[in-house]
Amino acid sequence: MTEEQMQRKIRFFLVVGITTVAIDFSIYQLLIFQSAIQLELAKACSFIIGTIFSYVCNRVFTFQSDNKIITSAAKFIILYVSSLAVNVSVNSLLLAAFGNTEIAFIVATGLSALINFTGMNRYVFGTNARKRRSRCGSR
C-alpha cells in the first residue's frame, strides 16, 4: 500500500468517525427529548445505530472491502468490544493517576481510535487475509 492510499484511508476513517459521533449524539438527544425512553436505553440505541453506520461506511468507503459481510461484521463487533474495554480501562487508570477527566478522555479515545483503525485495516477489512489465502492456494 502506498503512502497516498494510507492517507486516503485515514482521512475517510476520520470523516466516518466524526460523522458516527454526530449521529450517535443526535439520535441520543432526539430520543431523550422526544420520547419517554430511559437514558440508558436511548444511549444504547444511539450507539448501536452509530456503530452500524460506522461499519457500513468504513466497509464501503474507507477500506473498500469485498470480504464477506457476516465475517467482517463479526470481526468488527469483536474489535469494537475490545476497543471499548481498552478505552474504559485506560480512562479509569488515567483518572486514578492524574484525576483529570479531559486528559483521560482524550488519551483513551485516541488510543481506541488507533486500535480501531489498525484493527479494521488489518483484521476486519484488510487485504492481508485475502493475500494469505491466495498465497496458500497457489502452492
Question: Explain this structure to me?
Answer:
The protein contains 5 helices and no strands. 86% of the residues lie in helices and 0% in strands. It has 2 domains: 1-64; 68-139, no CATH class.
Nutshell version of this structure?
The protein is an all-alpha fold and 139 residues long. 86% of the residues lie in helices and 0% in strands. The protein has helices at residues 3-34, 39-62, 69-98, 101-124, 128-137.
List keywords for this structure.
139 residues; mainly alpha; 86% helix; globular
**Strand portion:** under 5%
Assign a percent range to the helix content.
over 70%
Which radius of gyration do the C-alpha atoms yield?
17 Å
Q: What can be said about the biggest beta sheet?
A: none
Q: Detail the poorly predicted runs.
A: 129-139
Shape: globular
Class derived from helix and strand content: mainly alpha
The count of β-strands is 0
- Mean pLDDT, all residues: 90
Set down the secondary structure blueprint:
Blueprint: H1 3-34, H2 39-62, H3 69-98, H4 101-124, H5 128-137
